[in-house]
Amino acid sequence: MAGYTIAVVGATGAVGQTTLRVLEERKFPVRELRCYASPRSEGKTVEFAGQPIRVERLTAEAFRGVELAFFSAGSAQSREFAPKAVAAGALVVDKSSAFRMDPEVPLVIPEVNAHALRGHRGIVAAPNCTTVVTVMGLAPLHRAARVRRVIAASYQAVSGAGVQGVEELRRQILAWARGEAMESAFFPHRIAFNLIPHIDRFAENGYTGEELKLVHEARKILEDETIRISPTTVRVPVFTAHSVAVTAETERKVTVAEARELFARFPGLRLWDDPAENRYPMPALVEGQDDCFVGRVREDLVWEHGLAFWIAGDQLRKGAATNGVQIAELLVGQRDR
Fold first, then answer.
1. Whole-angstrom Cα distance, residue 22 to residue 87?
2. What structural domains and CATH numbers belong to the chain?
3. Mind telling me the catalytic residues?
4. Helix (H, G, I), strand (E, B) or coil at 7
5. Cβ neighbours of residue 17 under 8 Å, at least 6 residues apart?
6. Which of 141, 158, 266, 269 could cross-link with 165 by S-S, CB 3.0 to 4.6 Å?
7. Is the pLDDT of residue 163 over 80?
8. Dihedral over Cα of 190, 192, 197, 200: its sign
């Protein structure tokens, strides 16, 4: 039977569930599917291609015979088990932060730097979801005119924090509708009808881990450590899809018309920009889509060579699951040649 033996680690989480859906939608050649999760999820079932798949507990022996493994269970599990999967003969697509900044591990957005896969040693890292959405907009500008400085403010959906984030927002909205107190158990503050400018831990310089991921990962993907990036990440009361307000300075001036043409031609990016018709990217528009949508393209009022734009993408799909499956498609294509 044609196809590959696939393992999905973290199969019961939001990204794991979306990975299963994307594998099925893109008709990835799956011969055998193994699903793994934490001990508390052992024995549950997930659905793939209309069939229930039992979720097993992750062990060191789980990867015997596995050819391709998707990891979306967190950095601790990836650091412990991804090398074991490689040792067992599997290719690993890791969606955690465990290996992203390892110089020997490619950090890949297929539309941007697929060539980086040539140097992999069994593990390929997928970027942070906010990085993916932001870099999809920066990449065509960087190729055409070299991006020098970036200011980026992200507006990140609660599903980026996992199932618990989604449930917290839902509980608080329902409590508000009933006239009850909106209690916070997962986020540090109430998220319903509120914004929280704090994602991940604060570093000594006042930036959060989420913000610093955007800085370092964008530089690695764009292969330019000289790009200066000032990020702010904000959690917003939206269930799915991240949005980012970006201002980018380039070495030479890029006109609005040229930028729109660059965006429209870039694979995986959809220009959605007609302010007169109230046409611009929104989370409700991009949810469930694999493309990122870009609009509100305009000249910056501060930098002479600056452009401002607004970009949005479904962080469970292009920000995580779809990007991972695209990487896998390239990996198996390399292996089959």
1. 27
2. 4-127+320-336 (3.40.50.720), 130-315 (3.30.360.10)
3. 129, 242
4. strand
5. 11, 46
6. 158
7. yes
8. positive
